[in-house]
């Protein structure tokens, strides 16, 4: 009788196999078991089936059946043995193995068995990174482009984990750059709106804006020279009475300088007839004024009082400033501080007049602005910005501190 597990001859009446130690069944039961196993083996045709007994190949070698159940002394060298250890998942027939894993699966999954991962489209990440760079945030957009360019090359080399990491960083920098640009844009819009609201009350007249800037520069220079002027003897004379030729409303465009009344636009000689001369150090007489443009000039008297005037060129060709017409004047209290020069506007308005006197003569202003240092009241003609009158009042005293009259004849 042979052992049903190792196939070696068994001594009679043995209860255990001396070779493998397996329990010995009675001969009749063993024959039935062998017949049942043989029939099952023929039916399944599975040479690796669980429980198939080994056979002696005639060489006399024992325990050489590679499919034998529970074979001992193999030092785990049986690749098909049930429960074999230390195989590191290299046994394709080991119990529980699916047999589905191939080297292609292994490489496509970055060293892990299973179904292949879905490829990453690096072009999509690159497009969004470029858009973010051009329209949003340049530094972060460039970083996003660098990572997006790595995605496809990493996938081709089999480094799927690296491609995933590059895609993640490209997406992150694209989003951060876009959000940062949106935040900056929002703050810029808010800032622009606030600045716009703060400046919306100013006079939009381009000529008046230029005049204000020039006058402020001149006033700063005059304040710096106060110490020098203190050495001069100021001539204090009573303001001249308004002439009968002076108009009563602002749109008469008349101004009286000392005892000379002029209507704008007038000639340079008309202003000089009032005892003034043009300051050629500020603007040379041969300075060319382009067609349909104007230049700011200054006229001074013997006491260094001065009046700013608009030298206008209403022709189609350039001409020297000395040949231009005078389209208006502007004067403030600093310009007349040396005394001896009187400037009167229509209705008898001059320096030191009250708001009530001005609005009583000119009516309600078309535009007003109340600043920290002065209030500006403006009146405009319906047909041109260059026909206007502006009276400024000192914020502290409420009296006239500056007067501007314009009529460019256009």
UniProtKB/TrEMBL annotation:
Residue spans of biased composition, Basic and acidic residues class: 219-235
Main location: membrane
Family annotation (InterPro entries): CD225/Dispanin, CD225/Dispanin_fam, Zinc_ribbon_dom
Chain ranges of the Zinc-ribbon domain: 2-24
Residue ranges, annotated region (Disordered): 1-100, 219-245
Pfam families: CD225, Zn_Ribbon_1
Compartment(s) of residence: Membrane
Regions that span the bilayer: 125-149, 170-197
GO cellular component, one term: membrane
Bias (Low complexity): 33-46
UniProt keywords, alphabetically: Membrane, Transmembrane, Transmembrane helix
Polar residues bias: start-end ranges: 56-100
Protein name: Zinc-ribbon domain-containing protein
């Amino acid at each position: 009788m042979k052992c049903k597990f190792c196939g070696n001859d068994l001594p009679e009446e043995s209860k255990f196999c001396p070779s493998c130690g397996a329990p010995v069944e009675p001969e009749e039961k063993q024959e039935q078991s062998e017949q049942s196993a043989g029939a099952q083996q023929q039916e399944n045709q599975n040479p690796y089936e669980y429980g198939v007994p080994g056979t002696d190949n005639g060489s006399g070698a024992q325990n050489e059946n590679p499919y034998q159940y529970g074979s001992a002394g193999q030092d785990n060298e049986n690749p098909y043995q049930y429960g074999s250890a230390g195989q590191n998942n290299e046994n394709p027939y080991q119990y529980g193995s699916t047999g589905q894993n191939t080297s292609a699966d292994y490489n496509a999954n970055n060293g892990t068995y299973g179904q292949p991962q879905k490829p990453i489209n690096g072009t999509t990440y690159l497009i969004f990174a470029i858009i973010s760079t051009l329209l949003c945030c340049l530094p972060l957009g460039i970083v996003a482009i660098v990572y997006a360019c790595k995605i496809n090359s990493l996938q081709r080399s089999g480094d799927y984990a690296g491609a995933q990491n590059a895609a993640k960083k490209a997406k992150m920098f694209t989003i951060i750059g876009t959000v940062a640009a949106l935040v900056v844009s929002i703050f810029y819009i808010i800032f622009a709106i606030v600045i716009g609201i703060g400046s919306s009350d100013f006079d939009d007249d381009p000529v008046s804006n230029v005049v204000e800037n020039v006058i402020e520069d001149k006033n700063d220079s005059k304040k710096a020279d106060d110490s020098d002027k203190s050495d001069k003897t100021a001539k204090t004379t009573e303001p001249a009475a308004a002439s009968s030729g002076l108009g009563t409303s602002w749109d008469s465009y008349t101004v009286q300088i000392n005892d000379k009344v002029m209507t704008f636009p007038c000639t340079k000689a008309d202003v000089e007839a009032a005892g003034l001369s043009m300051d050629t150090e500020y603007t040379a007489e041969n300075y060319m004024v382009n067609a349909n443009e104007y230049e700011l000039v200054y006229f001074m008297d013997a006491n260094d009082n001065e009046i700013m005037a608009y030298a206008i060129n209403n022709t189609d060709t350039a001409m020297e400033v000395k040949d231009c017409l005078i389209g208006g004047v502007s004067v403030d209290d600093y310009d007349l501080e040396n005394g001896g020069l009187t400037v009167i506007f229509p209705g008898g308005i001059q320096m030191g007049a009250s708001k009530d006197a001005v609005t009583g003569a000119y009516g309600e202003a078309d535009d007003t602005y109340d600043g920290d240092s002065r209030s500006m009241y403006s009146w405009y003609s319906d047909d041109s910005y260059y026909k206007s009158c502006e009276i400024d009042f000192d914020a502290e005293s409420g009296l006239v501190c500056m007067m501007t009259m314009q009529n460019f004849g256009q």
